[in-house]
Amino acid sequence: MKRLPKLTKYLFVFYLCLWALNLHAQNILRIDKNVQQHKFTLNEVKYLQDSSGKLSFQDIQEMGSSFTENSSYYPSNHHKNSTYWFRVRMYFTEPISGNSIIELFDQTTDEVTAYMPDKSGSYTKSESGANLDFSSRLFHHKNFEFLIGDTQPGYHTYYFRVKSHNAVNVIIVYRTINYFIHYALNEYLTYGLFYGMILIFCFHNLLMFLAVKKRQYLYYVFYILSVGLYEMSADGIAFQYLWPETPGLNHYGNGISLYFISICALVFSKELLQVKAKAPQFNRAINYVILLRSVYFLYCLFFNKSLFVYKFVEVIPLSLAFATGVYIYKNGYKPARFFVLAYLVLFIGFIVKALSALGYAYFLPAPISYYSLSFCFIIEMVLLSFAIGDQVRILRKEKDAAHEETIRQMHLNSQLQDSINEELERQVRARTHELVAKSDEVRQQSLIIENQNKELLEANLQLEKQAGEILRMNVLLEKDNVQLKTNIEKVTESRALSTELDYEEFSAKYPDQETCFKFLSALKWKDGFVCTRCSNTTYCAGRLPHSRRCTKCSYEESALHNTIFQNSRIPINKAFYLTYLIYSTNGTISSHQLSEKLDIRQSTCWTYAIRIKKVLQEKKKSRKKNDQQGWTMLVM
């Protein structure tokens, strides 16, 4: 191949370098009289990160080659501890005579310093930001504006130094004064309508609270006011009108208002949806979230206000309120439908706002992307008002239905009362006729009764005499009955200790648990009470039937303790009779017979009989001749 001449090669390399430089060169905005507004995006902006924050403007000018092209749609301060320098370039086709400005958005930016070239070629420094008093701004406007002075046609470079503790999108806009005034008037008119609607909602719901005394209206008023305070803090309106001479409050406005939005939203949700009654588990979760959110807020407020920038924490309480609404609506509570729809719209607004902050919603119109959350707040307030109205409508409907049911019931009661009165009148007439008919018969019988009374008086005199004699005989019989009863008890006791009683007789002697415990208590402490722990002999009544409590060590001993019936799993009266049967049969009765007589499982009877037979064998060895204790010797 033929070699190219040297000149041709040099020209090729030169054009290649120019193409490479043009490939990475910063785009220059061309300004003529037809350009009313332009937003700098993508490679129209270059930036330089100053980690130390100590670079001067002269240093920045010398480091022009160190600037980096912006890769996102809007540049931002990715490292909040660093200072960022931004550079834009414009080409003016004709002279500029102070009728244009450069404007920066995001009113939460702490410090913005602009270096604007003048017609002499030097730079003029202008400062603004949320850390300076509002009166220091070029215009009394929520954004940061810097005036482009008299400028000759040609290329001009503008520098902006930005420092903020928040993550902000640095949106740099060129505007003419006429377009800025037109835009600002429309913007403030929109703000007036927005905050006017908030005040109208607040006033309306406050009047409803005063009228019906339902707390949900008051909570809703607090929620709307919190939304208004947040929007004013985010838009810079609060700084302009509420605390223009106190820029330090800009660090707290968003955080405080967001806290009240979360708390008021959760409390309002609990009251509107009746969460405590309809979803107790969600009610507990809401209470825990309110507590944790309050702790986080107090920590941010008093110890580390920089944590206020993490607005994503509000997703937790708002998501919980949304989930609670969905759950209650699924369970059939109709007023929750507008509540769920309201929070769905609000979540859409949050998503659009987040995408705008990240630079992913640049394809949307500016009013929609920037004011999406405000629009959604308005829609949410309307839908929540519908939810409250729906709840009131349903309650009124239920009240009307109850009133109609009351009226119907009163009508039925009236008809029933009339029918009862008619029936009573009929019965009274019949009864009166019957009484009149019988009155004559009564008068005739009264004469007979008078004659009989005379005879009875005579008989009573005779009976009184006989009654005295009967009374004397009754006294004698009562003495005989007492003696007979005593003898019967002694005979029965003797038979119970022997082998003569059948089950009916034994049950008559020991019919219930109270009788058995009383018998055991008398048998156990027949020689007097002695505490098994401290040997004390004085006692008082215990908690258990016929138990005794030591007055010295407070040890309580039951009547069953240290007896054969201790830890028995069968009724005490049946345990008595089982012991009696084993004793009376000298241990020869079988467990099957015991089960039939006592109606207890054979295995239980067998286990219990083994224990008693063992005691019986031991007592036989030590029993004295002619011992009259009977079956009770097996108890202790």
TrEMBL record:
Q: Which residues form a coiled coil?
A: 421-469
From what superkingdom does this record's organism come?
Bacteria
Q: Which organism does this sequence originate in?
A: Mucilaginibacter rubeus
Any idea what this protein is called?
Answer: Chromosome partitioning protein ParA
In this protein, which residues make up the domain named 7TM-DISM receptor extracellular? 44-172, 187-391
> Which Pfam family, any one, appears in the UniProt record?
7TMR-DISMED2
Q: Which UniProt keywords apply?
A: Coiled coil, Membrane, Signal, Transmembrane, Transmembrane helix
Signal peptide location: 1-25
User: Where does the Transposase zinc-ribbon domain start and stop, copy by copy?
Assistant: 511-555
Under the heading InterPro entries, the entry gives: 7TMR_DISM_rcpt_extracell_dom1, 7TMR_DISM_rcpt_extracell_dom2, Transposase_Zn_ribbon
The record lists the membrane-crossing segments as 188-210, 217-243, 255-273, 285-304, 310-329, 341-362, 368-389
